[in-house]
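Let's do one together. I've listed all components of the complex below, 568 residues spread over two lines.
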Amino acid sequence: MKTRSSLLGYTLIGPAIILLLVMLFIPLLYSLQLSLQDTDLSHGAPKWIGLSGYRESWLGGELWNVSKHSIVWTGCVAGFQVLIGLLAAMMLNRKFPLRWLVRALILLPWVLPGVVAALTWRLVYDSQFGFMNSLIAKLGFGQHATDWLGTPGLAMFAVILAAVWKGFPFPMLMLLAALQSVPQEQYEAAKIDGADTWRKFVYITLPSISGVLKTVVLLVSIWTFNYFEMIYVLTGGGPIRSTHIAPTYIYELSFRNFNFGEASRVAIVSFVFILAISFVLIRQMNKTEKY
Amino acid sequence: MLIKRLSSQAGFAAGLALLLFFVLFPFMQMLSTSLKPADELFTVPPLWVPKHVSMANFMAAFQHKQFVRYFMNSLAVSAITCALVIIVSVLAAYGFTRLEFPGRKFFLNVILVSQMFCISAIVVPLYKIVGSLGLLNSYAGLILAYMAFTVPVAIWLLRSFLLNIPPDLEESAMMEGASKLAAFFKVVVPLLRPGIGATAAYVFLMTWQEFLFALIFMTKPEMRTLPIGIMDFKGQYETNWGTMMAASIAISIPVFVLFLFIQRQLISGLTEGATKG
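Okay, and this is what the predicted structure of the assembly comes out as:
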């Protein structure tokens, strides 16, 4: 039973709503306003330029590059996090000795502070002292001094691997909980019908966890898109700007070049992009689940 | 049949071993580097297991001039944020689950949308707003920003815990003459304690490691929090990896310990929040 009490209701949710209004929604409008101004320091005082700033940002090409990197980054990191998370969850869903210990160890990267994870990977990728090159040598592929973070083609791969490592335990936790709530009778019935493992996965497991799976994909995509410190610490967007994603680019534009207008244009484009992803995924969720 | 079972067992074990190796590989480097004495730090190729174990790096990290200061800053910001977020969110979650008022659905959706907010889109305006309030380089500015990012998730978590507490309990307390708020504090809050613990732990974990806003809001060295402060060990030309890894372990330990204590409630809160929607 819910009590009808408007005054009390508004008083209780008031602080939270005001906080979000002042710290999230008003800044967004402010961002929108800034994005319509030319604030390039070399052009003198800020002036109103309307939407033409957006057109020039696109034609300039840098925004397009950053968008491409952001999409590759978000797609790969979120995709592999969920994939590895699902595989790990399926392994941990079986019973084996010391399972609690394995689960605790797998959660370590996720609990580790983000900047610590980034600094550690920076050392792992170091061309001289890093374990990455030394692992390759130990596996018998010869002694190399690969500079993982300093080579344009490799750097993106390197930051993606590090980010997958940092974040995959979260999807694993969620999916493990979902797997544990799948009714066992269904598997037994399928076994009697002679279904193999793959069929059981496609026809029983996947439909039962699809709700959680979509929520997880949504959350992980948004977090990955906004994941700043991994790239900031590992490459700073380099080499030759080959790993700049939206947050690092916004940071560079606003706090290195003090071009707040251009930074706001990138911010607004990012916001619209995230909104579109969320919208598509939420619609997907509502389509499959009618409750 | 037996061979098939054995080979599937072996495949399973190999998969698990591979996963564990992937997870633990960077930790091996972290631990090994932090325990190496100075003369073993810069051997090429690196030694995986140090020949001699030394605590010198840990001593050096703690003797770093500002390390304790950073630690206290982090602790103050995280603890105050935690307390304020819990107060604001418990009240709001109660309002959303137990009361009916016009616009309830709408405001609940506002909370949901805030969870999916693109944080990098508001870095610049938030910096300007906090700056114009004169709150750069103060705990208050950082705490306000952290509250904005954690309150939506906190409300969502607490709401899922509250939905599990039957309203009959409060009703029977109110029948016996307790006011609505008294019933809430005497009956609901004690039952909600695990949920509050889990939510507080989540907020603490998030704020303890937050990087972007700590980086732009705290420009004065003495106001930095640990995640930014630890970058001190990364010199401009040469990084002292030994001290840096020792400091990294030192700042991770409070988080590990906290997580160990709270993991069951936190995991059940997060998963229920996600599965219930």
